[in-house]
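Researcher: Go.
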Amino acid sequence: MKKTLLIIFISFLSCSKKNNSESHTELSKNKSNENFLKLEKLIVVGNFDGDKKVDTIYQHNFSSLQKKEIDLAPNPMKTDWDEVVKWFYNQDADVKLTLNKKNSEILHLGTAQGLYCLINIGDNNNDGKDEIAFVIDKLDDSRTNTCKIYTICKGKWQLLKEFGIREDAFDWKKGETQPKFNSIKGYLEKQNNIWMYLDNNQNEYETADEVGKMKVLELNKC
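Model: Structure:
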């Protein structure tokens, strides 16, 4: 009788362990589907190094911990924000930009979710190379941010200009597919084929008429 009960008990444990294992696998699968999302990786093409050939700049989000590209990350809409921030820092994540040329310098932007935009704004300073503008999707609680404009100068990345923006320029309606932003509404727009900008951080103006109005984007050569 004891032997029979022992066999039944062992069978029960085996079945229970299997069910728990299956439940854990299913839970992990559901967690992956619901709480994680695929990171958007932006690219932009243009003549960025001045050789009059088409170049491509790629955005990456690299984990120095895992030594590989981060493809999936916690979904901020499904996960507590503090946990999202902690996850990226635990991965020792680094958003970086690379050019499709051997031995080209990598532009490291630090730990962040990614980029809101990556825009080719053309050759504004007439140096024979296109410049890029981008806004980093930072791991903070602020809706104020900065647009940065970079160029490649003698094989090195160089910051030419930065100005304040608000992240509501990148909002889109619920249910719509996330758009690709080729401008920053209200802050960096092409008007009559000329790039105009508005600095959200500017507090002083020469005249009252200038308040809140966009100005022509002018960049110095590197």
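Model: The mean pLDDT is 86.
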